[in-house]
Amino acid sequence: MIEVLPETQGDMLAVRVSGELTNEDFDLYRELIRDRMRKYGAARLYYEMIHLDLNRVKPGAALENAFFDLVHGREYGRVAMVGEKVWQEWAAKLISPVKKKGVRYFDLHEREQAMQWVQEGKV
């Protein structure tokens, strides 16, 4: 499931993902981020993961999303990934090289710092 957070504004997309991620969830994410890239030339992203289970992520949708990130990686501004599991931190490190400004990982208890970093570049 993907939830758009109220901090979403301008070129920044803030989302929380949890549980099962479907093709529709990934489609919504790509549409929202693509709209910001078109309108502003780049997009900042706050991506929070809670109770996310890899076994409940649709493989085809995840691969399509990875391809989207490869193609559009240079159109991302700051990206903060916030999570609660070691594999999430590894995922952030894995995708960081394809993003223009990289990806910074924060633990779930650091969510306020992550949001501030994406919004203002501080922390």
UniProtKB/TrEMBL annotation:
Pfam families: SpoIIAA-like
Annotated coiled-coil segments of the chain: none
Name of the protein described by the UniProt record: STAS/SEC14 domain-containing protein
